[in-house]
Design a protein that fits this description.
The protein is an alpha+beta fold and about 130 residues long. It contains three helices and ten strands, in the order E-H-E-E-E-H-E-E-H-E-E-E-E. Helix content is about 30%, strand content about 15%. Strand 5 and strand 6 form a beta hairpin. Helix 2 runs antiparallel to helix 3.
Length: about 130
């Protein structure tokens, strides 16, 4: 099977979301390479799974110890700070998505996740 690379246009809302992240490191535009192993519907389901797992790995306790949010995980476009949970499942899902689904990351500014802090919302933030 021949591999193909295709760009996906991100909606204005998604582009606005990504640009709102702020940060100090530009991420070049990237696209997924696929062997067409997953259908668009499968990729949508996998992306929804990643979104749910992201919430879990970023979950923290604002009243807890300071030793939280000290993990750095690769996400689809920008690395994130995380606290724990289903880390390997998240890594596997992101790797599968990046390998088998079409996606695009605009030239957004990613924040450095290595100094993550637990926010009042119970989520790790860079």
């Amino acid at each position: 099977m021949m591999k193909t690379t295709m760009s996906v246009v991100i909606s204005a809302a998604a582009a606005l979301f990504f640009s709102a992240c702020g940060g100090s490191e530009a991420v070049p535009t990237r696209t997924g390479t696929t062997t067409q192993a997953l259908t668009d519907d499968d990729c949508t389901i996998l992306r929804e799974t990643i979104n749910k797992l992201r919430e879990e790995v970023k979950s923290c306790n604002p009243a807890g110890t300071m030793n939280q949010c000290n993990l750095v995980l690769e996400d689809v476009c920008c690395p994130i700070s995380a606290s724990g949970g289903p880390v390997q499942e998240f890594k596997d899902a992101v790797a599968k998505y990046k390998d088998q689904c079409n996606y695009a990351c605009t030239a957004v500014m990613c924040q450095d996740p290595s100094q993550g802090k637990c926010g009042l919302d119970g989520q790790c933030h860079p």
